[in-house]
Amino acid sequence: MAEKPSGTENKGPRRARAPLQSAQERNGEPPLSLPRIVATAVDLLDAEGVDGLTMRRLADRLGAGAMSLYWHVENKEKVFDLALDSALQYPASPQVADTLDWREDVVRLLEDWRVCMLRHPWSASLLPRRALGPNILGRLELLSSTLSRAGVADADLNAAIWSLWNYVIGATITRANFDRTDDDRTAAQQRVTGLSERYPTIERSRLLLDSDWDGTFRKGLDFLIDGIATKRE
Amino acid sequence: MAEKPSGTENKGPRRARAPLQSAQERNGEPPLSLPRIVATAVDLLDAEGVDGLTMRRLADRLGAGAMSLYWHVENKEKVFDLALDSALQYPASPQVADTLDWREDVVRLLEDWRVCMLRHPWSASLLPRRALGPNILGRLELLSSTLSRAGVADADLNAAIWSLWNYVIGATITRANFDRTDDDRTAAQQRVTGLSERYPTIERSRLLLDSDWDGTFRKGLDFLIDGIATKRE
DNA sequence: TCATCAAATAGTACGGTGTACGAGTCACCA
DNA sequence: TGGTGACTCGTACACCGTACTATTTGATGA
Question: Are B193 and A136 in contact (CB under 8 A)?
Answer without folding.
Answer: no
